[in-house]
């Protein structure tokens, strides 16, 4: 097995607001190899986004430990890229400027930096749109720019919190194909949060299934589908078997109601 990039041991997180305590995660153990693509799927409110924020160093665990590249996470790391559900681009900068902002904040500038930004924009399908402004682009195109921004500083790890959740079905499918191609090229570690069982299986090497709150690891599935996984991947019997197995876990836990699904 490759060297572990992300290791969580006995991780719990409780949020306190006044007298109210909400335990989002409890007893989470996860180990992710360097260069792996791992997806996390689970019901709303199970702590998926909290898990990503713990790995990123944006919040600290209430118990247990989080380590990245062998070091304890004590705050945001320079070797991490993050893509959220909304692109959160800066309105007054063009698309190239938005991508370069990531580098400027790190004190990185020069021809090589600009060339990498342009190369990434081309790789995500935005070649020729460098001088456009966010309001001139569709939601899917804005999210492509956000992915380029998350990768421009060449992070060893990319954290993605439901990055395709607000997109229409066709755009989402194309983004899935493009993200896989980008990962095959860059080979960074990807920690991908999603509500979509199909999306998790189509993208990941491993799928972590979370329980209801307080979230913990319910099951882990290895995905044995050849890459690249094009549009035909859904026709593979292994895809059907895995999505069915995950769906049945949610049915057995009461997360999904089969009678309501049949209506």
From TrEMBL:
<protein>
    <submittedName>
        <fullName>ABC transporter ATP-binding protein</fullName>
    </submittedName>
</protein>
<keyword id="KW-0547">Nucleotide-binding</keyword>
<keyword id="KW-0813">Transport</keyword>
<dbReference type="InterPro" id="IPR050166">
    <property type="entry name" value="ABC_transporter_ATP-bind"/>
</dbReference>
<dbReference type="InterPro" id="IPR003593">
    <property type="entry name" value="AAA+_ATPase"/>
</dbReference>
<feature type="domain" description="ABC transporter">
    <location>
        <begin position="6"/>
        <end position="237"/>
    </location>
</feature>
<comment type="similarity">
    <text>Belongs to the ABC transporter superfamily.</text>
</comment>
<dbReference type="InterPro" id="IPR017871">
    <property type="entry name" value="ABC_transporter-like_CS"/>
</dbReference>
<dbReference type="InterPro" id="IPR003439">
    <property type="entry name" value="ABC_transporter-like_ATP-bd"/>
</dbReference>
<dbReference type="Pfam" id="PF00005">
    <property type="entry name" value="ABC_tran"/>
</dbReference>
<dbReference type="GO" id="GO:0016887">
    <property type="term" value="F:ATP hydrolysis activity"/>
</dbReference>
<keyword id="KW-0067">ATP-binding</keyword>
<dbReference type="GO" id="GO:0005524">
    <property type="term" value="F:ATP binding"/>
</dbReference>
<dbReference type="InterPro" id="IPR027417">
    <property type="entry name" value="P-loop_NTPase"/>
</dbReference>
């Amino acid at each position: 097995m490759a060297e572990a990039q992300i290791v969580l041991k006995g991780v719990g997180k409780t949020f306190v607001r006044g007298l109210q305590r909400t335990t989002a995660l409890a007893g989470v153990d996860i180990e992710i190899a360097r260069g792996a693509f791992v997806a996390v799927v689970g019901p709303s409110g199970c702590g998926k986004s909290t898990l990503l924020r713990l790995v990123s160093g944006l919040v600290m665990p209430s118990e247990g430990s989080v380590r990245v590249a062998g070091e304890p996470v004590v705050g945001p790391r320079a070797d991490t890229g993050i893509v959220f559900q909304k692109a959160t681009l800066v309105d007054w900068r063009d698309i190239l400027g938005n991508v370069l902002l990531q580098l400027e904040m790190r004190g990185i500038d020069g021809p090589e930096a600009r060339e990498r930004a342009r190369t990434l924009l081309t790789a995500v399908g935005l070649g020729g749109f460098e001088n456009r402004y966010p309001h001139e682009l569709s939601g899917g195109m804005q999210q492509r720019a956000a992915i380029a921004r998350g990768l421009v500083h060449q992070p060893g790890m990319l954290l993605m919190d439901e990055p395709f959740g607000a997109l229409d079905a066709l755009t989402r499918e194309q983004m899935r194909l493009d993200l896989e191609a980008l990962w095959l090229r860059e080979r960074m570690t990807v920690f991908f949060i999603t509500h979509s069982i199909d999306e998790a299986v189509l993208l990941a090497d491993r799928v972590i299934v979370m329980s209801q709150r307080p979230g913990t690891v319910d099951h882990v599935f290895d995905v044995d589908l050849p890459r690249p996984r094009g549009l035909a991947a859904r026709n593979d019997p292994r895809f059907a078997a895995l999505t069915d197995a995950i769906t049945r876990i949610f049915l057995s836990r009461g997360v999904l109601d089969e009678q309501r699904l049949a209506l």
